[in-house]
Write a structure and sequence with these properties.
The complex is a heterodimer of chains A (207) and B (606). Chain A is mainly α. Chain A has one domain. Helices cover 56% and strands 0% of the residues of chain A. Chain A has 10 helices and no strands. In chain A, α5 crosses α6. Chain A is elongated. With 606 residues, chain B is an alpha/beta fold. In chain B, the strands form 5 sheets. In chain B, strands 11, 12, 13, 14, 15 and 18 form a 6-stranded antiparallel sheet that branches. Chain B has a 5-stranded parallel sheet with strand order 6-2-1-10-19. In chain B, β3, α3 and β4 form a beta-alpha-beta unit. The radius of gyration of chain B is 24 Å and the shape is globular. Helices cover 23% and strands 16% of the residues of chain B. Among the domains of chain B are: 267 residues, FAD/NAD(P)-binding domain (3-Layer(bba) Sandwich); 151 residues, Cholesterol Oxidase, domain 2 (2-Layer Sandwich). The chains are: A mainly alpha (207), B alpha/beta (606).
């Protein structure tokens, strides 16, 4: 199973990936700075950098993804972000088990994100500074409810997967949300107004 | 260290060995039994328990395998136990909500699933995957229907929703109130003592409310409302509506005389099956104690294809069993047959019990066997954020067996102009393990992250359960062509939601919106589209009871008119089902039916 997923992903042409991301020719036309030659060269670089522990993504695709997920859910004063929660690993594993078409969409999306970074800032996405990443994310998150471009679609896809990966992780559940359930209780307490007191959690008064 | 999925495969060795041993050793003639009980869920479990405890020798036939209650309920497993989180393994998947309507039946053989090893109903997930059947082995035809089946000792009680509500006079006398269809031949007073006994035997958590819409029970320690729910309760109280702690078929104070069960410890993961057995699961609550009496023989892998007739055309002699593994066909004989395979599978067995005396199936002299299929229309739901909890720290909000409940308020004392009967809502809010609301929050970065935690404790959401009118034209028949993996004809559904249900659904959505507005909820979202038929898993009515054999399948004691020694223990005889979840009524009615049978066994006149 794992080997099949790797070889399927290894043989993807970037053009095929971009086509899967959007609506075929139109998609590629929307990203005119990526020639076929450029795409193939990009793919070769990525293949030689492939990290063996990854199931689908190459090392550089993985690096791009890590920056992206950590920009979507970053570290803040309260808790670490998506990179530390290993959300990129989660997505890589997920991609090894989904339809090839979906894997193509992801790989195409990562390539398009890099292409956007190259065209705006002359560096791959994973090498951008925080302000540059933010500039790109601001652009591609504008139409979240009804994405218009392939990159906007990819943003929604990546964000939803990041949410799933992050809030089902140890960090997401315990450090960020501070979820308190799933433990042995003597008795479920609930709102303290139920016990005839004023409740300190919601400020409701006992009636 | 991150591993792909160390926890996915449960060790089933013990359960499989036990199943094989039992199936190999129990054969026709290997023993004598007084009663054969078909099915081991709420219905079959209660039937077997009642009979075995009274000294009756019972053969319990389960189509699936035995269960290992020590390994199979994975109640407290965290999603991060594996990098795969709670996803199913590759090659297995449930049918998704849209596919029920759009894919041709049978679902399992649809090309959309060609590359999957196992296709399950929507109830199939990481925790139920070893229990829920493969749709490819169990096809259905006809109109879309999300039929959830599980073949395992205890059936669906291993992961049921635990809603333990009683039917009341509003159900038993529904026709007298609104003129539609007929009343049950029995009243609430006939069944009340059995509901009381079920509450005490199995444990039922709830609060005494004195409402007309739903009768109170003999309750154990109730669960409480959390902060958002109290705010919501106070808001709708002004509209004369009640929001009360959910009634759960879970023992919160403990039960007597059952060494297999402990009381609820408030983990709140009951839908995966309760590993301390506080939730009612038929194996530990009923079948193991019955087995310990020495009077119960359980044979797994026993798929019943039909009820066999004896020399007299109005008496059964036993049942025909196809072994699920070996496909060996065996005729098991006993003086009495009790069917508890679930309303629809019981109906299928009867329809398939064809003979020259009963060419359209046993119990079908009236022609209504398979008709009057009813359940609950679902999917109308709403959500919003309760202001008092926006921006507050998380509290422990979900450590209880079921969410609260808004009992029916339509057509209880008033009369709605657009529809008859009614609906109730179930649902709650507060901090859950997974913040689904995050998917609807816009943006990214620190602002997004802090919005999620700000709104996380404030969410409230609930959905409706509406009565589907029992109509003769909503029915199942045997498909003339399609058979299951064992060669048994499958059910063809002819079942749709009609005018009354759709008008009710519209009112459900409007009421949710009105109540969320009353609670000053922010970002109110209303889902107005019903889920596919069958989603409620509350199917009833396809072998309805009545005093007149020309218009009903069983008598008022769930005894088949056509065959005096065949009883039905599940919900097939129910005339109408109100808004209430069905399990508690199945348990009470099965107990009542078995009391009747025991009397006849004692008198020797079955």
């Amino acid at each position: 199973m794992q080997r099949a997923a790797e070889s399927a992903a290894g043989k993807l042409s970037r053009r095929a990936a971009l086509r899967a991301l959007g609506t075929g020719i139109g998609t590629v036309a929307a990203l005119p700075w990526l020639s076929d030659e450029g795409l193939l060269a990009f793919a070769r670089i990525q293949e030689t950098n492939a990290a063996p522990q990854l199931k689908v993504l190459s090392a550089s695709q993985f690096a791009t993804l890590e920056v992206l997920v950590d920009a979507i859910i970053p570290t803040d004063d309260r808790s670490p972000g998506a990179k530390q929660a290993r959300v990129a690993d989660y997505i890589d594993l997920l991609l090894s088990e989904v339809d090839r078409e979906l894997t193509l969409q992801w790989i195409g999306g990562l390539a398009a994100l890099d292409a956007e970074a190259m065209s705006k800032f002359r560096a791959p996405f994973s090498r951008l500074g925080a302000g540059q990443v933010d500039a790109i994310l601001q652009r591609i998150s504008r139409n979240e409810k009804a994405p218009q471009t392939p990159l906007e679609t990819f943003f929604v896809m990546a964000k939803q997967a990041t949410i799933r990966g992050y809030y089902s992780s140890t960090i997401g559940i315990h450090e960020e949300l501070r979820y308190k359930g799933n433990q042995f209780l003597r008795e479920f307490v609930g709102c303290e107004t139920e016990d005839g007191k004023d409740c300190p959690h919601c400020g409701q008064k006992h009636l | 260290m991150i591993q792909p999925d160390p926890t996915l495969n449960v060790n089933l060795t013990r359960a499989l060995e036990e199943s094989r041993r039992l199936a190999d050793s129990i054969k026709p003639g290997s023993d004598r039994w007084d009663v054969i009980v078909v099915g081991s869920g709420a219905a079959g479990g209660m039937a077997a328990f009642q009979l075995a405890m009274a000294g009756v020798k019972v053969l319990l036939l389960e189509a699936g395998r035995m269960i290992d209650v020590r390994t199979e309920y994975r109640t407290m497993e965290w999603p991060y136990a594996s990098m795969r989180r709670n996803r199913l393994p590759p090659g297995e998947r449930p049918i998704d909500v849209a596919e029920y309507a759009f894919l041709d039946r049978p679902y399992g053989s649809n090309p959309a699933f060609a590359k999957h090893k196992k296709v399950m109903s929507y109830a199939g997930n990481r925790f139920t995957r070893n229990w829920v059947v493969d749709e490819r082995q169990h096809p259905t035809t006809g109109t879309p229907y999300a039929w959830v089946r599980s073949r395992i000792l205890g059936g669906k009680t291993n992961f049921w929703g635990r809603g333990a509500l009683r039917y009341g006079p509003l159900q038993f006398n529904a026709a007298s109130r609104d003129g539609f269809d007929v009343d049950w031949p029995i009243s609430y007073d006939d069944v009340k003592p059995y509901y009381d006994k079920v509450d005490v035997l199995l444990g039922c958590s709830g609060t005494t409310e004195g409402l007309d819409a739903v009768p109170d029970g003999v309750f154990q320690r109730p669960s409480k409302l959390n902060c958002v729910e109290v705010a919501f309760k106070r808001a709708i109280a002004k509209m004369g509506r009640h929001y009360i702690p959910g009634r759960a078929g879970v023992t919160t104070d403990g039960v007597l005389n059952n060494k297999y069960r402990a009381r609820c410890a408030g983990r709140g993961r009951c839908g995966r099956g309760c590993d301390i057995q506080a939730a009612f699961h038929s194996p530990t609550a009923l079948i193991y104690p019955a087995r310990d009496s020495g009077n119960l023989t359980t044979r797994p892998y026993s798929i019943v294809s039909e009820v066999l007739l004896g020399e007299a055309s109005n008496r059964a002699s036993g049942v025909r069993v196809i072994d699920a593994n070996t496909r060996e066909v065996m005729d098991f004989k006993a003086p009495v047959v009790v069917l508890g395979a679930g309303a629809l599978d019981t109906t299928r067995i009867l329809l398939n019990s064809r003979s020259s005396a009963h060419p359209n199936g046993l119990g079908n002299s009236s022609g209504v066997l398979g008709c009057y299929l009813s359940e609950h229309i679902m999917g109308i739901r709403g959500s919003g954020f309760i202001p008092a909890r926006i921006g507050t720290e998380a509290t422990l909000d979900d450590g209880r067996p079921v969410a609260p409940y808004i009992p029916r308020f339509r057509n209880v004392t008033d009369r709605h102009p657009d529809f008859i009967r009614g609906y109730h809502f179930q649902g709650g809010g507060g901090c859950a393990e997974y913040p689904s609301m995050a998917h609807d929050i816009a943006g990214y970065g620190k602002a997004f992250k802090s919005s999620v935690r700000r709104y996380y404790p404030a969410i409230i959401s609930f959905g409706g359960f509406g009565e589907v009118l029992p109509r003769k034209e909503n029915r199942v028949t045997l498909d003339p062509v399609v058979k299951d993996a064992w060669g048994i004809p499958v059910l063809r559904f002819d079942y749709i939601f009609r005018d009354n249900e759709l008008k009710m659904a519209k009112d459900m959505a409007d009421s949710i919106e009105e109540m969320l507005i009353a609670a000053h909820a922010e970002d109110i979202k209303i889902e107005r589209e019903p889920l596919p038929p069958g989603w409620s898993i509350h199917e009833i009515g396809t072998a309805r009871m009545g005093d007149d054999p020309r218009t009903s399948v069983t008598d008022r004691f769930c005894r088949v008119h056509d065959a005096k020694n065949v009883y039905i223990a599940d919900a097939a005889p129910f005339v109408c089902g109100g808004t209430q979840n069905t399990t508690w009524s199945i348990l009470a009615m099965a107990w009542r039916t078995m009391d009747h049978l025991k009397e006849h066994l004692r008198a020797g006149d079955v």
